[in-house]
Target: ABC transporter ATP-binding protein
Amino acid sequence: MSDPILSAEDVHVEFEARRGGGRARAVDGVNLDIAPGEIVALVGESGCGKTTLARTLLGLERPTSGRVLHRGTPLAYTSKALKRFRRDVQLVLQDPSGSLNPRHTVYDAVAEGLRIHGDVPNERERVADALSRAGLRPPERLFLRFPHELSGGQRQRVVIAGALVLEPNVIVADEPVASLDASVRGEILALLLRLRDELGLAALVVTHDLGLAWNIADRVAVMYLGRIVETGPVEKILTAPEHPYTQALLSVLPDAPGSPVVLQGEPPDPTRIPSGCRFHLRCPVLASGAAATAGVDGACRGEDPGVLAGGTAVQAACHYARAVSSSTGQAAAARP
Model:
């Protein structure tokens, strides 16, 4: 992989718990690299820390510890540095209706970023170009329309145009098609892929939908209870996942073979993360006795499998997966 354009380096983000005291570890040690022109899907259940990590990569949350790097340089949190950073790293939210001011025309919505950054020369031309790149042609016919006059797909394209007008090199898209009809989702995903190919844009796509990840991502990072537990190229992770959590998420997709894996209970409270593997309380491999057969049940309950490194390597934070991989590798080495 080329040098990352955006990275999280051992990032932790903690918040004061609303009830009962203590601190909630929303992000609990994450390394994540995004290369130029690469689309990374960050997937997991609601509440696993995906959005907090995305906000931290955008500079909207400051890490409790660790750091965010842009083009290899640690992010500074001065107003001037953040303003410069946000020209290059733009956010696309899941709800275009909530992202657009109902009193602003399409033109004003797209031009807003240019005006905030004092970058108004050739404003009309740049707004038109951004709308065209977002698939709204001819752009001039939309300039004076208001959000309520547009379809959901058109509104999402306007939001994307508002990000593109500043010519960023990274887009962070938080559930970019969750609020859209199924017939429109494919169009927006195709648009993101085309922007990557034409402009070299990198993207972090935050989603709970592994099907979406399959259609758009180059690489997948699976998050559980504040930590990435499996990562690798999309084909590997979505066809041969090693972590039981990833396997459970995949099992409920419509075309998945076998029966869905129903996880017991809810994710633990982030103020009281369990010892050992943070997934062990819900792990079907541990519950079935397979981990005991492999001799790792004690490790599952008592030893932290550790924080995964960044980069493109296939990694899984799972004692059982490592034991199986090790025994398979030893068996292969023993063959004549």
